[in-house]
Design a protein that fits this description.
The complex is a heterodimer of chains A (274) and B (313). By secondary structure, chain A is α/β, with parallel strands linked by helices. Chain A is built from 10 helices and 7 strands. The radius of gyration of chain A is 17 Å and the shape is globular. In chain B, helix 8 links the parallel strand 6 and strand 7. The chains are: A alpha/beta (274), B alpha/beta (313). The interface between A and B is medium-sized, with 34 and 30 residues.
Chain lengths: 274, 313
């Protein structure tokens, strides 16, 4: 489907606000992961403002859709999306990584409403999402499970253990997004340890695979609707993204994986995102 | 003694009984369901049994997800894989988020026997005990295993239950009631206190008999709850002034360490630790391995004699 132009405009505005939050949070903390947070913004915007069935007033509502951020270091993007969606006040965002803050460096499900799984040690979130999806199947529930993986994260063997299990148990209530920004800490994923080709690998593991522009809200939503309609197979939507998207000096730079912008850089970044 | 039953067999029966009571109870295994005795549950409740294959990391993560969605997952594989192979998953996906997962690992300790050192978990208690919020339970016999598994099911939070492959003597009656967090004196004595867990409890009871023949009255305490371990109960039980710990586990990090930590801080007491002395095991019949690694009643009695000799006059 094509997004209604007015809705698309609203979603793009949310994405812009989330990017601004990410820069402000990581600048305030002087620590965090801007590159992989910025690359995932449209995916999270589509999920939290269009795709997922949620009620911020009832974060433990039994019929809610679940989301697992398997690439837990993109926590700033998730916190910003949750705050914008109304799970907690946006002024909390600037406490990221501070002593006593619920906004831990990586997501803690016990501390933040709307966080469904504590993640951070890469490769583990997909298994947890599979467990949730199995529970949903067992209960014949209508809610779905969504998960976001990093591309470098696919170097973890556990991802492929989970990929096998999801297909074996026919988890068609599980939809996974791969943030394919092509960079990890030490450089291009293909240089560090090549996990490609992704579509062939996931297909061989028994998944239905789609590939989209990960910064196109329209494409993300359309692919998700197609995934929701499929049966008997788990779904992955491979999202081609740009690490550091939206901030010129961060784009496609592995160095911005886990580095905080200085005050001066933050001013420039926010000017670009204004 | 009332015969011998492996604790893994009692576990297999316990999850079937609990499965009938608790609709939210699910069981996961990693291609060892015949050995871990989850196969019986799988036959009766196929829709609530998930074989995850030989993939222990995913096994633990899947259990975490099921728990996050309200299920009560019982997860079984061999102790060496549950605690070693999947340590980071147990740590980050289960213990850190305090998810309601019950890790019931079988084939713990040296009595795995013929499979040898690669399969003999001698450090699993140490690994699990170090994780905040994880309850660690080591039942001594079949009736206690049934009670321990039931207590784990009704306890809200992650639990590690250590089970064995070999048949062990039944020392408790069918009406035995386990209380989580409680250590239990099975035999009173005034000269020395023997803390034991798992199959070493029955061995400690035999040792106490032989000590009595030498004129030493040994108190035997079953420490089925290794964590949380109550300092007050340990100090009270150690009032004899001499202590021995016995476990089918390394002397590093298990029951012996837990008791030593408490006594050193609260009530310094001469202590002798019976356990595997910081070495890997090897293949062989279980009984011969217990001999070789000095885990017999004779070894426990000798340790008790040494502890008594070290008592303050």
């Amino acid at each position: 489907m094509v997004l209604d132009p007015e809705l698309k405009k609203q979603l793009e505005e949310k994405a812009r606000l989330i990017r601004q939050h990410i820069i402000r949070m990581i600048n305030a903390a002087q620590s965090g992961h801007p590159g992989g947070s910025l690359s995932a913004v449209e995916i999270l915007t589509a999920l939290y403002f269009q795709i997922m069935r949620l009620d911020p007033a009832k974060p433990r509502w039994a019929e809610r859709d679940r989301f697992v951020l398997s690439k837990g270091h993109a926590a700033p993007a998730l916190y910003a999306a949750l705050a914008e969606r109304g799970f907690f006040p946006a002024d909390k965002l600037l406490t990221l990584r501070q002593l006593g803050s619920p906004l831990q460096g990586h997501p803690d499900m016990k501390k933040v409403p709307g966080i469904e799984m504590s993640t951070g040690s890469l490769g583990q979130g997909l298994s947890c999402a599979c467990g949730m999806a199995l529970a949903g199947k067992l209960d014949e529930a209508s809610w779905r499970v969504y998960a976001l993986l990093g591309d470098g994260e696919c170097q973890e063997g556990q991802i492929w253990e989970a990929a096998m299990a999801a297909a074996h148990y026919e988890l068609d209530n599980l939809i996974v997004y791969l943030d394919y920004n092509r960079l990890q800490i030490d450089g291009p994923i293909s240089t560090v340890l090549n996990p490609e080709p992704f579509p062939d690998k996931w297909r061989a593991f028994g998944w239905q695979v789609q590939t989209v522009d990960g910064h196109s809200l329209t494409e993300i939503v359309a692919a998700t609707e197609k995934a929701q309609a499929s049966t008997a197979k788990p779904n992955i939507i491979i999202c081609h993204t740009v690490k550091g998207k939206g901030v010129s000096f961060m784009e496609n730079e592995a160095g911005w994986h886990g580095k905080a912008p200085s005050d001066e850089q933050a001013v420039q970044a926010l000017a670009e995102l204004a | 003694m009332k015969g011998k039953i492996a604790t893994r067999d009692a576990y297999g029966e316990a999850i079937i009984e609990l499965g009938r009571e608790l609709k939210e109870l699910v069981v996961l295994d990693a291609d060892l369901s015949q050995s871990t005795k989850t196969a019986g549950f799988a036959r009766l409740f196929p829709e609530r049994f998930f074989n995850i294959g030989i993939a222990e990391a995913n096994l633990m993560g899947t259990a975490a997800g099921l728990a996050a969605a309200g299920k009560i997952p019982f997860v079984s594989t061999f102790a060496v894989f549950a605690t070693g192979r999947a340590y980071d998953q147990v740590r980050n996906s289960i213990a850190y988020p305090e998810l309601n997962v019950k890790i019931c690992a079988t084939h713990a300790g040296i009595t795995v026997g013929e499979d040898g050192a690669s399969h003999q978990a001698l450090e699993d208690i140490a690994l699990m005990r170090a994780l905040p919020g994880l309850t660690v339970l080591v039942p001594a016999d079949a009736p206690e295993t049934k009670q321990v598994v039931r207590a784990a099911a009704f306890h809200n939070g992650p639990v590690y239950v250590r089970l064995g492959r070999s048949e062990v003597p039944v020392i408790n009656n069918g009406d035995y009631e386990f209380k989580l967090g409680e250590i239990r004196t099975l035999r009173p004595g005034t000269d020395v206190t023997i803390f034991a867990c798992g199959l070493m409890v029955s061995i400690a009871l035999v040792a106490a008999d032989s000590l009595q023949a030498q004129g030493i009255e040994a108190q035997v305490v079953n420490a089925a709850t290794i964590k949380p371990l109550d300092p007050e109960q340990i100090s009270l039980a150690a009032a004899t002034g001499a202590v021995v710990t016995c476990e089918e586990h390394s002397v590093i990090g298990g029951l012996g360490s837990a008791v030593a930590e408490i006594l050193a801080e609260c009530q310094p007491t001469p202590l002798e630790r019976v356990g595997v002395k910081d070495v890997f095991g090897q293949s062989g019949p279980a009984s011969k391995l217990l001999d070789l690694y000095q885990l017999t009643a004779r070894d426990v009695a000798a340790a008790a004699t040494r502890a008594v000799a070290r008592k303050q006059p």
